[in-house]
Amino acid sequence: MSASAAPASQKAKSKPALPHQHPRRTREEHSHEIAQDYVEIIADLIATTGEARVIDVARRLGVTHVTVARTIKRLQREGLVTSLPYRSIFLTASGQKLSEESRRRHETVVDFLKSLGVPKVVAQSDAEGIEHHVSQETLRAFVKHLRQRASA
Amino acid sequence: MSASAAPASQKAKSKPALPHQHPRRTREEHSHEIAQDYVEIIADLIATTGEARVIDVARRLGVTHVTVARTIKRLQREGLVTSLPYRSIFLTASGQKLSEESRRRHETVVDFLKSLGVPKVVAQSDAEGIEHHVSQETLRAFVKHLRQRASA
DNA sequence: TCAGATATGTAGCTTTGGCTACATATTAAT
DNA sequence: ATTAATATGTAGCCAAAGCTACATATCTGA
Questions:
Q1: Average pLDDT, integer, range B52-77
Q2: Contact between B123 and A138 using a beta-carbon 8 Å cutoff
Q3: pTM of the predicted model as reported, rounded to 2 decimal places
């Protein structure tokens, strides 16, 4: 066997230097997903309980307060939240914006899945993972589908 | 302001000790997603070029060969692949199984998105992220939708 | 008020998934 | 058969996200 393989169907030569079809699941993407989860949760906590505390976020995510505290620092660095020692967490303008976008997207995905007959609980659960990977185009397709359903 | 917040709507007291609604995006889940990506790519490389080399996997993922080599070691530890120094990578029985499941699921998601009118390229791209978060139930709903479409 | 409960912070460890730089093996070509 | 190109491996760095253990601050209730 050669290092480059003797291509069967593909093309012919060794390394056609294919442009990597997808940079994809980079570390960065992942941490951005986490950022979205955080701002979504923070916004929700503020809306429903009046404020967002580290411990609440931790409970929601099922991680320890230490993890949350450290991540909050990162989000602060990135300008999404503000926080002071022993105080509750606030969203900056851009954090607000991101949380709203995320929430809207999240809801669309949930509604869409439910419209397919997926049980509510499952839809909510799946949406949390799916929402981060739905492009504008796909989201629009979801909305279109929902509208068709609605008008039918 | 109290540490526990004065709940508005939620319930009442401070920390109702809500069971964390979702363990979710744990580190483990993430590395499992990566495992699936790897076995999918490895299976595809074997199918299309005859063998899977570290460098090919690296090109497909858009990462360096070092990252791939280390991850392959992990997958080997986990019993999904076998590999020997300077040799190509093989899937174990369970690696095979996982790759097939992943591929099937991937294809279903792509077909489903396309059936919604999402452009092929976008569907493929989105599917890569979405496929890891689609539960059995949701997948079944996708299939059902596809069948209805087909018979319509 | 002050003591106990709860929340937050800090130190430090682990694994994972990125990377560069450099060494070595393998393959391919002359 | 050597050499040059390519692939693989190793060492070691980084950041993120998880953890436990322990210290400190804040809040609440008696």
A1: 98
A2: yes
A3: 0.86
